[in-house]
Amino acid sequence: MRLKDKVIIVTGSTMGIGKAIAKKVVSEGAKVVIHGLEEDLGKQVVAEIGSENSVLHIEDLSNEGATQRLVDLAISTWGKLDSIVNNAAIVAASDIHSTDKAFLNKLMEVNTYAPLFLIKSALPHLIENHGAVLNIGSINAWSGEHNLLAYSITKGAIMTMTRNLGDSLFRENGVRVNQINPGWVLTEKEVERKKEHGLSDTWYQHLSKMYAPAGRIIWPEEIAAATIYWLSDESGPISGQVVDLEQFPMIGRNIPKDPSTIPHK
């Protein structure tokens, strides 16, 4: 097992990518702190992976002291902490006209500030165990869709943070910090979000090759599989790296000769 006896916090793990990551790390021998806002869903995750392998914490990460409480729970339950997966995020549509200060601050608090302060809260334990941090970003960090302005800003910020801390913390303390940027993933929330945008209940079964060359988008389990390398000792001294996980290149991608053939998501 590649993560045998490691203790890992996975934020936003009551559903979607976070849930898939939590299940995957336990299958590789880890113990996990499940976190999210949906207590009923969190209890289902614990039931699936076993209460001997997991403990649940329900709290908004923007609350004062929330990150320290997550760390304290890991320590009180298993006596140590090896890794953090900063996965929790608010995905909310906005453009320059609809983005006000309060809205941007809320997204920054959860998507960017909380990961930073969770790392800070956990740092003594990560130093002790030569631990690893994995930030879950987004390919929107590179520029973002026109209607994901605030969200994209927060993901651009966390990418810079990853590179900065990945250098400084590894040099100073041997703590690795890396990031993966998922592309379009078929999570429960994404299914509902697109239905709210007017698409059919089965929109994900009929996708243009423009957006999904494989004929489908990425499954959460495929993102989860990629996290194990970064959390395990297999990644050795690699730190400060950001890897895009999408089925086409973000830069230099071929554009259709006839732009009118591009469907709207």
UniProtKB/TrEMBL annotation:
<protein>
    <submittedName>
        <fullName>NAD(P)-dependent dehydrogenase (Short-subunit alcohol dehydrogenase family)</fullName>
    </submittedName>
</protein>
<dbReference type="InterPro" id="IPR036291">
    <property type="entry name" value="NAD(P)-bd_dom_sf"/>
</dbReference>
<dbReference type="InterPro" id="IPR002347">
    <property type="entry name" value="SDR_fam"/>
</dbReference>
<dbReference type="InterPro" id="IPR020904">
    <property type="entry name" value="Sc_DH/Rdtase_CS"/>
</dbReference>
<comment type="similarity">
    <text>Belongs to the short-chain dehydrogenases/reductases (SDR) family.</text>
</comment>
<dbReference type="Pfam" id="PF13561">
    <property type="entry name" value="adh_short_C2"/>
</dbReference>
